[in-house]
Specification:
The structure is a homodimer of 356-residue chains. In chain A, 41% of the residues lie in helices and 21% in strands. Chain A is α/β, with parallel strands linked by helices. Chain A has two domains: 207 residues, 3-Layer(aba) Sandwich (Isopropylmalate Dehydrogenase), CATH 3.40.718.10; 137 residues, Isopropylmalate Dehydrogenase, CATH 3.40.718. In chain A, strand 6 and strand 7 form a beta hairpin. The structure holds 3-isopropylmalic acid (2 copies). One 3-isopropylmalic acid sits at the interface of chains B and A. Chains A, B: This is 3-isopropylmalate dehydrogenase.
């Protein structure tokens, strides 16, 4: 099969982890006789430096003409003084919006080889396998009006949702749940926010279309606690944009490192794939970055944009296998464990390639 | 000294835990020759049932005429179908607003006797002592416009802050930090939200008044993770309203149970004291509720409304001592630990009283 993949490596560790991910995709293509074409383009801080804006038109054109967009990371401290609409992150928000994907899938899985890396007790995390479905195009991220009035010393952002925006992401969550443990936990703050009341009513309505799936509602504050106390009790977790941002990062501690977490954004014109971690400028270029988040993101490309489920599963198995041998990048290394050996970004990529 | 205390026990387990807290306050008064006068009043679901609204005028009058308001909990599932402005929780939000306290202090402390109760590893939590300073009168909770339009199938809430609202709560956070480990971690989402940019700029400005205090900024998503990975690295955590709601509940896992957590809201006309836990209607009246959150809240009354620091510290020491003897309410009991004995709400209250 043929797949056009736009590669937006971005800032900080973005390029180095993306390189390992595309290497794995090339290996899969070669092995399976597929034709994967990779087209690089600028986004984020490197785009601001190179073209003056965080999402150049050329990048947008390449992305929209592709079958899948693989993104590294955006963000660079040198732009901290700019307003949100001019920063590297604006490029990320703009491309999310342009591609139209509204359902951001973020798996949070406990790998037994990494059980010692989580601040949570191994008996709490063992077997945990949560899939966050985060609405990605609504809420405070995109709602208008939004401003910071420096004369009036006041600022506002708007949390806005329409029923349709909730319906479409809820359907994806329920669909995915039918293929998993058949449970959806919907997160809101319905005891305070009108938006959450619409959210809860709508999700409840959609649940009726999926009688085989159990729906539970949780308030976002309690959920932040339950996720740590009983991570195993969750299957699919459905959230609005900001709640999903917070809770999926929090759940990174179930896996043990943000560097391990992939994501896929589906439902729009072109699917967008990005590891959950940021650009980590402090370790960029040092070989310390963990490429497994990006490599697992590549697996999601195969699953959600190429229908190559077996290949996706093979990458995931290769990652688990490499971890089991004790190979560790700095973020998942633990002092005093003689079975572990510290490897660089590139070495970790190579090990997964070999295991594959 | 004389202290008029309004007692708004509220719903569910509110009355039973509040009873234990007032018993302790009476004991302190008797011992110290103080004159504490307790005036009960209705709030929440019981007020709706009794008077038609969640915050009757009579309650407001009593509260505003008092030196301190002690609240139990509000919330009752039977009102779930009502809109946010008619629910028991509306009574809570209204009284918060009426009393004017804008700085909600929520300590999150790791008790060594409860180390086994946290899903976090004991070596991660040992010694953790975080004080959340949550802004309580701004942001999405109170911002207008806010509506759910059922015809248009759309809803909005508004996150709004003025600089003054941030200045006053920031000063309290820095003041408190000078008496602790001299570190403030300010939480925002400044890479996306204009409100957070105002927040960050304002907190940075106020920090200059406190050169002995170190300020760090954290994005709310990363913070949700860092709190679990390195709880010991935080001292005072300063947040806007909703972020503080989520993060302080999450940090309940550091202590091991929400039932242990007190809070005080200061800065307004009358200080408001409430345990962090909710009304827990499922266990109301069963004797399973943990009164220690309410009792530790009583200690905060003595500290922040009566200047009785030594008595506050004595209550806190008594709680730690009782926990060390192995007494446990259901929420903090662990099967298989022979040193523990299960006690009821009332027995736990009595044990603290004796230890005092
Ligand atoms: C970089 C930032 C804009 C982004 C977000 O908040 O969505 C990131 O935190 C994420 O979760 O992908
Ligand atoms: C009951 C609810 C309105 C309240 C809040 O969100 O402030 C509660 O969760 C709390 O944290 O005190």
């Amino acid at each position: 099969m043929k797949l056009n993949i736009a590669v937006l490596a971005g800032d900080g560790i973005g390029p180095e982890v993306t390189r390992e991910a595309t290497t794995i995709l090339r290996a899969v293509a070669e092995f399976g006789g597929h034709d994967f074409v990779f087209t690089p383009a600028l986004i984020g801080g490197v785009a601001i430096t190179g073209t003056g804006g965080p999402l150049p038109q050329a990048t947008l054109d390449i992305a929209l003409a592709s079958d899948a967009v693989v993104l590294g990371a955006v963000g660079d401290n040198k732009f901290n003084a700019l307003s949100p609409d001019k920063r590297p992150e604006a490029g990320l928000l703009q491309i999310r919006q342009a591609l139209g994907g509204f359902a951001n899938l973020r798996p949070s899985v406990a790998y037994s080889a990494l059980a010692g890396n989580s601040p949570l007790r191994p008996e709490v995390t063992a077997g945990a396998d949560i899939l966050f479905v985060r609405e990605l195009l609504g809420g405070l991220y995109f709602g208008a009006p939004r401003w910071w009035n420096r004369d009036e010393n006041e600022a506002i952002n708007t949390m806005r949702y329409t029923k349709n925006e909730i319906v479409r992401v809820a359907r994806i969550a329920f669909e995915l749940a039918t293929r998993r443990k058949k449970k959806v936990t919907s997160v809101d703050k319905a005891n305070v926010l009108e938006v959450s009341q619409l959210w809860r009513a709508t999700v409840t309505e959609i649940a009726a279309e999926y009688p085989e799936v159990t729906l539970e509602h949780q308030l976002v504050d309690s959920m932040a606690m339950h996720l740590m106390n009983t991570p195993r009790s969750f299957d699919v977790v459905l959230t609005e944009n900001l709640f999903g941002d917070i809770l999926s990062d929090e759940s990174g501690v179930i896996t043990g490192s943000l560097g391990m977490l992939p994501s896929a954004t589906i439902g729009g014109t072109v699917n967008l794939y990005e590891p959950v971690h940021g650009s980590a400028p402090d370790i960029a270029g040092t070989g310390k970055a963990n490429p497994l988040g990006a490599i697992l993101t590549a697996a999601m490309v195969l699953r959600h944009s190429a229908g190559l489920e077996a290949d996706a599963a093979a990458i995931e198995a290769a990652v688990a296998q490499v971890l089991a041998t004790g190979a560790r990048t700095a973020d998942i290394a633990r002092g005093g464990d003689a079975n572990q050996q510290l490897v660089s970004t590139q070495e970790m990529g190579k090990l997964v390639h070999q295991a594959l």
